[in-house]
Amino acid sequence: MSEKKIKHVLGLSGGKDSAALAVYMRDHYPELEIDYFFTDTGKELPEVEDYLNKLEAYLGKPIERLGANQDFDYWLNEYNHFLPSGHQRWCTVQMKLVPFENWIKPYLNEGYEIISYVGIRADEPWREGYIPTQKYLSIKMPFADDGLVKADILEILEGTGLGLPKYYEWRSRSGCTFCFYQRKIEWVRLKERHPEAFEEAKAYEKQFQDEKSTNGETYYWMGKDTPLSTLDDPERIAQIEADHAEKVKRFKKKRRRKEVYDDELIEMIDLDAIYDDVEGGGACVTCYK
Ligand code: SF4
Asked: Which residue has a Cα nearest atom 7 of ligand 1?
């Protein structure tokens, strides 16, 4: 019986873990011919695009952009202007999962087995979330299997000279510019760093209200009762900044009490731990890894 042909694929999210995994695979498993891909929603941060271009140059291989023909605006219209949310996460399905499935389908039809490499680390609990839905598609987590943790990932990226994607200066994750999983502090920073994108996000909220004005429904990125326009108030922004600073302070104190000094604290990367997942938790692993 002939062996099945194998296609190795690795999805880049624009985040640090998948980028480090691409580097790690190239250096540790050079015998594998890996195809890289990125699912482009059409609403990516410029920092993500910059980083992917640099990574592409470093890897010496193209990163295929999937799904750009039917972008966020197309799907928003299809979903009757309902912004995506934790309950209705059509964005991940339509702009991340379906383009990936469409991309691998011809290979599956040709009899390939697909192995998809994912940047889940040994210090993360998300293994169970990655159960493939298709026969002949399997998931491998080399970082988790080889025992690599956050510090190793940072070291890999430092070693390449790529460093971290620039958005980590102000935001905790890659993913869409308007992702509803952002915390308030990240919306504040989006407004500071990319005011035009912030205004665009506000316009999407208004568009929803205009379309739905007959029954008075409201929906906002930050939650049902909190329009982005609330961040036009300098006092509100000052409050969010102060709350955030306090959370960071408390988190640092807790670490000192536990004598955790062996792992560098990078404020935005460690935002989940700092916020203890109170706000913005359960974020999208598919988009951010
Ligand atoms: S990054 Fe956020 S908005 Fe974008 S697809 Fe993922 S969950 Fe949806």
From this structure: 284
Q: Which of 284, 285, 286, 289 to mutate to test the pocket of ligand 1 (most atoms within 8 A of CB)?
A: 284
Element (DSSP H or E) covering residue 117: strand 112-117
Q: Show the tokens assigned to 241.
A: 């900044």
Q: What is the pLDDT of residues 125-153, one digit of tens each?
A: 765 555 666 778 899 999 999 999 999 99
Please give the distance, rounded to the nearest whole angstrom, from the Cα atom of residue 91 to the centre of ligand 1: 6
pLDDT tens readout for residues 230-265: 999 999 999 999 999 999 999 888 877 776 666 667
The answer as to CATH 3.40.605.10 being correct for domain 5-169 is no
3-class DSSP assignment, residue 283: coil
First to last CA, the chain: 37
CA 143 – CA 150 distance, rounded (Å): 10
d(C-alpha 38, C-alpha 65), whole Å: 5
pTM here is 0.89
Ligand 1 atom nearest the C-alpha of 95 is 5
Place of tokens 């792992």: 263
The CATH 3.40.50.620 domain(s) of the chain lie at 5-169
